[in-house]
Design brief:
Two copies of one chain form a homodimer. Chain A has 19 helices and 23 strands. In chain A, helix 4 packs parallel to helix 8, helix 8 packs antiparallel against helix 10 and helix 16 packs parallel to helix 18. In chain A, strand 19 and strand 20 form a beta hairpin. Chain A has about 550 residues and is of the alpha/beta class. The interface between A and B is large, with 127 and 128 residues. Strand 8 of chain A pairs antiparallel with strand 8 of chain B, so a sheet runs across the interface.
Chain lengths: ~550, ~550
């Protein structure tokens, strides 16, 4: 049956928000209302007549409210097949109930308030899920309403359809109901397990979107949103361009994470989840330029994020409509909390460029999960940059004067796959730039070499484009001497220091904690290198 | 009340396995049994007397079985507080039920059998969850039994305690019940959503184990097992050594994944989730040696996995008790499906070495998940090595003769972080070795350079240890010419081919699919390089 006329309603809610509105609407349209204890009182105060549930069940509410609705009469009225079982129901004196409006004891709320086991147990609803599940099972004839934000739409539908609800609506309500009871018992199970010292974890996701494919075209892929209302990466809005791929989404996360903590205007350039360009500056275009210059080769085909509304001046750095096509900078995705209209119009010139709006600042999560073969590693997110800044060498690095650079560099190294080394520098205008990085290497020395090579390569290009009193080697050396090298974990041997110092590096920041810290510090002193211990490692695998 | 005497039982099960055993036990010990339809028939056939539930509820089973147990009488008997509500219960004629034995309509089974929506809906149990949840809520006085594998223990406990069950047992059963109903409604919700074209995903984990910390010491960490019974990484058994760390577990996964598909005896050496050594050979010791020689520096402090029972000869390669301590190879974790007694005793010499038993072959999963800021990327696992092996150049690589090397190398490159390049070789005895790898770089050219550098470094060491008619440069070049270079994704430009060919590489395998494939192939032809297209990319981020 497509439309069902709502002639009899059972209303029993814990959260009474909006209940009198829909109850009055039903009553005024000739629907009989059955209700229970507290809900009944609310209806009475609002002058809405109702039938006490005990008149239907033939039984009194009992045991401090533990028994109210559960009865042969109520669940029969919800469950019987309106066609097949009609005679049997008539013989048994069961009259159909067409809608159940019910939300459950606030287990989540009392849990969050820190309730003890007894209070938690008292707040496990038994009758409510029974009614709701019975109504949902019989959605062919019954509407199960759990979500008070649905009341307005339901009233509108009933108003437009002679107090009837469609099968499509009842089906939608059914799906919502089983998700609601699944969430409810999931929270009960995990909470009571935790009280008992057992750890159960239940993660729920919704609105799964099939992607063109997974990491590779022979793998299927999907993107889900968390079922809770916390900010989610899936809050992103695609303003323009091709569909996002699985790898785009993964890289967007890294881009957003990389740019989130930056000061002033920040820009991150991501390739395969690693930032290969990162900068912060007082001007957005400058931040973009400085980030791009961190690895102008890899930046092609990259994912780029900004921490503030993108303006036209910065967007034009891509030279998307330059008559000389070789000057156009091809990138895959551009991300910002918002885009000025001029910037957006400009970027749309590139037909395939994915323009994505999401605010990195909103995306702070508490936990991080790694799935592995039907197991799960869970951890706090890595949200501490450093626990100390202690000069451990004869030469000192001025940590106060360079706090912005230190925090900038730690954010870069934290986001890179281990072993990770970054070389960062502060320009005269206080902008900060990732000059070179080495990441994902099994041997830290290789990462240091990669970071130095990239820095030198960038400085050689820079030298060729500017006037300097120095020759090239002296220029490169001078910049490296003024820069800061940061390691995501301690140096197991002094070799990294030797390699860096030979290139001109004079300032190194690392967590410390190796058995050979003394030898490492001694090497620094021999080479006039200043070393700062942060006390905080940033492995990321 | 600690122990509760079981005087009255309600038994209503869908899966009747073992039910007559426990019912007979209860009956013989003077417990009254209440039962329903099909369960009652089973008891009757076994000669076990019981009370028809309709004698308690006063109502007939109705509506094709939709109404059986739900009633004011049954749920009151389960829910009332045995102390506070005793008088009220007596007045209402409610007698306590002390145990509910119930398992639910087999929704999972009919789902797996491909049932349609109507059949799925019919298999949603309403009365069962109501009884179970009521009994569990009142676990202070009632036992809720959902799992038939619990029957023997419960009978043993009742036998030993004058037909009584302890509070601890009832509490444990309560936790099990809410997890059971949470799983049940989770499956219903996701299944019916899927039928309606909506994608909901619910992942459940159990037995969460707090780790010393997460990826870093300022992060808390936990390790969970999947709630389903599929093989899980948490099936691993720690036979010896220090507690596993968060990063150990993550690396163990990579080690197990790296070694799983290898032929004969396989060995993988992992650093930061990347294999830096990988080999297969007809002999286990040889496989270990060849893997170690892939990166003997990084292998220190690594995680090592074998695909077959580890024997003493291979284990002794670590030289753990060599009087010359500098010869001892320090590693973090050693993994194998099993260990010979001699190997195990030998390895235990190293107090801190974590010895882990897990069978890589058992750990095949269907899906892979990436959690990102309250969202989730889900994909099929990357289980296809190649879709074709097509020679696209004038020179041909003998893919039939080298199928073992190709599959070996593809397994290596598939496991490495992108961009990934491997150089692999086959020895005269048909063993295969990872000679050098480059991984995790934003620019593929850097990965190629890293793989070539590592290969050359390894070959220089090899040259110094053996006799050869060639000089060093010729030796290195000869081995590289006989080796195979594999790229995890296509070459966007010919530069990688030029770099590799300059080092002596003559055989390259890659997926193909670049806009510039033609130019890449032309470069190969100009440089007499054979190139094979696989059609299958292996990005891994």
């Amino acid at each position: 049956m497509d439309y069902i006329r709502i002639r009899k309603a059972l209303i029993s809610v814990s959260d009474k928000t909006g209940i009198c509105g829909i109850a009055a609407f039903l009553h005024e349209n000739g629907c009989e209302i059955i209700s229970t204890g507290g809900t009944g009182q609310a209806l009475q105060s609002a002058g809405i007549p109702y039938t006490e549930i005990s008149r239907i069940t033939g039984n009194p509410e009992a045991f401090g409210g533990r028994m109210k609705t559960i009865s042969y009469q109520i669940e029969s009225a919800l469950l019987f097949d309106r066609e097949k079982d009609a005679n049997e129901a008539a013989r048994l004196g069961i009259e159909p109930i067409d809608i159940v409006i019910c939300n459950l004891y606030p287990f989540a709320k009392v849990k969050e308030a820190g309730a003890n086991l007894e209070t938690l147990i008292e707040n496990i609803d038994i009758g409510g899920p029974t009614m709701l599940r019975a109504a949902a099972k019989n959605y062919q004839s019954v509407a199960a309403v759990t979500d008070l934000t649905d009341y307005p739409d339901l009233m509108a539908e009933m108003k437009a359809n002679n107090l009837s609800l469609s099968l499509a609506t009842r089906h939608r309500l059914m799906l919502k109901t089983f998700n609601y009871t699944a969430d409810y018992d999931s929270l009960i199970a995990t909470t009571l397990d935790q009280q008992a010292g057992q750890r159960t974890l239940r993660l729920a996701f919704k609105d799964g979107l099939p992607l063109r494919y997974g990491e590779n075209s022979h793998q299927q892929g999907w993107f889900y949103r968390g079922r809770n209302d916390s900010p989610s990466l899936s809050d992103l809005r695609i303003l323009h361009g091709k569909e996002l791929s699985f790898n785009n989404i993964a890289d967007i996360q890294s881009a957003v994470e990389s740019v989130r903590g930056l000061l002033n205007y920040g820009c991150a350039i991501i390739k395969h989840k690693n930032p290969c360009g990162l900068a912060q500056a007082a001007d957005q275009l400058r931040a973009f330029q400085l980030a791009w210059e961190g690895d102008p080769v890899s930046a092609f085909g990259s994912i780029i994020a900004f921490n503030k509304t993108l303006d036209l001046a910065a967007a034009e750095f891509l030279r998307l409509n330059d008559p000389d096509k070789s000057c156009r900078k091809f990138i895959e995705v551009i991300i910002a909390p918002a885009f000025s209209e001029a910037a957006l119009n400009y970027l749309k010139f590139h037909k395939n460029l994915r323009i994505v709006a999401i605010n990195p600042a909103a995306l702070t999560g508490t936990f991080d999960y790694k799935f592995m073969n039907n197991s799960l590693l869970m951890q706090d997110t890595d949200s501490t940059l450093y626990s100390q800044l202690e000069n451990v060498t004869e030469n000192h690095y001025d940590t106060s004067a360079n706090l912005d650079l230190i925090e900038f560099g730690l954010q870069a190294v934290r986001q890179l796959k281990s072993n990770a080394i970054v070389i960062v520098r502060k320009k005269p205008d206080d902008s900060c730039q990732l000059l070179g990085m080495g990441a994902g290497q099994p041997n830290r020395l290789v990462s240091t070499r990669l970071a130095l090579d990239k820095s030198r390569e960038n400085l050689e290009r820079e030298f060729s484009q500017k006037k300097s009193d120095l020759d090239l080697p002296a220029y490169v050396r001078q910049v490296l001497t003024d820069s800061l090298l940061i390691s995501d974990a301690f140096f197991p041997f002094p070799d990294n220091v030797e390699l860096a110092a030979a290139a001109g590096i004079k300032n190194i920041l690392q967590p410390g904690g190796s058995l050979r810290d003394k030898a490492v510090i001694q090497t620094c002193n021999n080479l006039s290198v200043a070393m700062v211990f942060t006390g905080t490692r940033h492995f990321k695998h």
